[in-house]
Amino acid sequence: MSGEVKKRISFGKIELGALAAVFALLAFFYPRNFLLFHCLAEIFSIVVACMIFVIGWNSRKFHSNGYFLFIGMAFLFVGVVDFLHTVSYKGMNVFAGTSSDLATQLWIVARYFYAVSMLAAPLFLTKKFRLEIALPLYAGITGIVLLSIFSWRVFPVCFVDGAGLTAFKVASEYAICAILAAAILFLKSKKENFEPGVFRLLAASMAVSIVSELAFTLYIDVYGALNAAGHLLKILSFYIFYKAVVVVGLQRPRELLFRNLSESEKRLRKSEKKYRDLVEGINEGVWAIDENANTVFVNRAMAEMLGCSPEEMMGRHLFSFIDERDVEKARTDLENRKAGLSEKHEFEFIRKDGSRLIAHVTAAPAMDDAGNYRGAVAAVMDISEKKRIERDLLQAKEIAETASKSKSEFLANMSHELRTPLNAIIGFSEFMLKADSEGLSKNHVEYLERIYSAGQHLLSLINDILDLSRIEAGKMELFAESIDLPGTLGYCMTMFREKASNHRIKMSLATEEAPEIIRADLRKFKQIVINLLSNALKFTPDGGEVQVAAYTKSGSVLISVRDSGIGFKPEDMERIFAPFERAGENANKNIEGTGLGLSMVKRLVELHGGRVWAESAPGEGSVFYFTLPIEQRHPAGNS
Asked: Which residues pair with 560 in a beta bridge?
């Protein structure tokens, strides 16, 4: 605490002189009229109690804790009971037929209220105080105690005329002293919530109260000197409390009443610096404008985005940084901000050097307590590079799509052009083999058979290319029909029985767990199965095995073709389904094939709404799986 505060809390000569004058006046009245002395002493205490309540009540909204409000409420009830004690004192004759015991009982009740409240008050320095609960509770307890004294007459006797204080009264005084001593210790544990001078005064007030209570344990006569000394000490105690709470509370509201507020302000300033450092340290821009769209704050990252310093941007209008093509959009955006809307937009800004910056802006309005628009705060992210990459990717995609379309058109045209002469070659070679083979030499027949076989192979390749071109162009149609699944799989396998027999390859089919009927395009379904069987037999050595199986799984039919062939590496999985690609090329270079079969399988399966995959390892054979929906509800083309 500063020296100025210590000076204000210390007792001045005028205050000490006034207090001495009060004591002298009371000392003057004491031997002459004890009742007047008693009334003046108690009225001083009652007035101070009421003042403490008024201060606590009217300053409640300035406190972040309930200490002073609780103290004020407690002193209100202490003052009420002290008032009843004053008017019930022996000789006042307010309550007819009463003895000195009534005033003593009320005195001990008021002192209990005071001591217990002093002990409990520090709790509300750190805990919330709920007046709506405490006030009815205090009122209820006070009412019950007063009824026990005035109506039920069950409150313990505290004074017997001619005999003096009862054991209950003396024990209560000692108990009150113990409670006040505990209150001082408890208050000391919370003294960091007070200015040091205020804590000392509050502790001194309770210490004087303890001495006062000890004086009240010894008197025999209610008009006696010890009784009078006790009242004077009570006045001193209340005056010290008055000095600590009322005077200091009014003269030093920042240090006492607003101490927690001052601490909150310090924490707020520290927090503000922390978050300002955070805002300055992030890579994204932060931009704040007032209600007229003039810049009031930018962090360094925002200024660097535009090639400026923060000082150069301060006070400048938002529109002076925005490309003229985006000004109208920005104006509309600001109107939405004034309506309390938060939005995200992309704007093109102009850097100091004239270059363009594309940024993603997320802005929110700033409103005052009355809900009036006071500006906006925006987070700004530079997406210029992202936009450039997107443009490059889009351009690359368009180039790729154009190239793919050109390729498909070229292959389709070339395939049509090649198929016409090829059909003639196949037809004439077949005709010559059937019609004139007897007149030809053995070598000529062999040559014609090679021409016919090569032509068929080339025609198959051209047909595959045409099918791929139609699928990629989106022109391939499905003609779904009901298919006998076991029968169709068996038919496809009979086409390879002779070849399998020649190479001692065992073929098996298992369809017990599959549906008998599925919906699919029959020709394309056969094409899928035949391609997979052809591959399996092609890569399976003599004496191997090929297994075909079908199952029902998750509303689809799952078909597998397993072989005991040479297999392929797992990393070749994606390549084998690409056009003109073959896995394990070095191992398979002597095996016929174009690399279009599996690519065709993949596209035909996907056209049906299924998927295809494989499992394999070198030397361990391969298994190819594909799924088809059991029901083709929305086939492409006619059904």
From this structure: 549, 625
